[in-house]
Amino acid sequence: MNTISLTDSAALPGRPTFDARAMTGENGLAQIVLDEKVYTLRITKAGKLILTK
Questions:
Q1: Residue 10: helix, strand or coil by DSSP?
Q2: Which letter, b or e, does each residue of 20-53 get, where b requires 16 or more Cβ atoms within 10 Å of its Cβ?
Q3: How far is CA 37 from CA 40, 41, 53, in A?
Q4: What are φ and ψ of residue 51, in 5° steps?
Q5: pTM to 2 decimals?
Q6: What whole-number distance in Å separates Cα of residue 50 and Cα of residue 44?
Q7: Whether pLDDT at 47 is above 70
Q8: How far is it, in rounded angstroms, from Cα 12 to Cα 50?
């Protein structure tokens, strides 16, 4: 996965920053694992992010 550089002041320097569209691919879905629990990251039709367990 590639990190991206943003000129947006909302991105904090020194923190990993990821492009959600690159993470989710064409279907707008990605799985994220935390402590052996799987979460789904989804981009809605309105362009919002939803993270669900």
A1: coil
A2: eeebbeeebebeeeeeeeeeebebeeeeeeeeee
A3: 10, 13, 8
A4: -115, 120
A5: 0.74
A6: 7
A7: yes
A8: 21
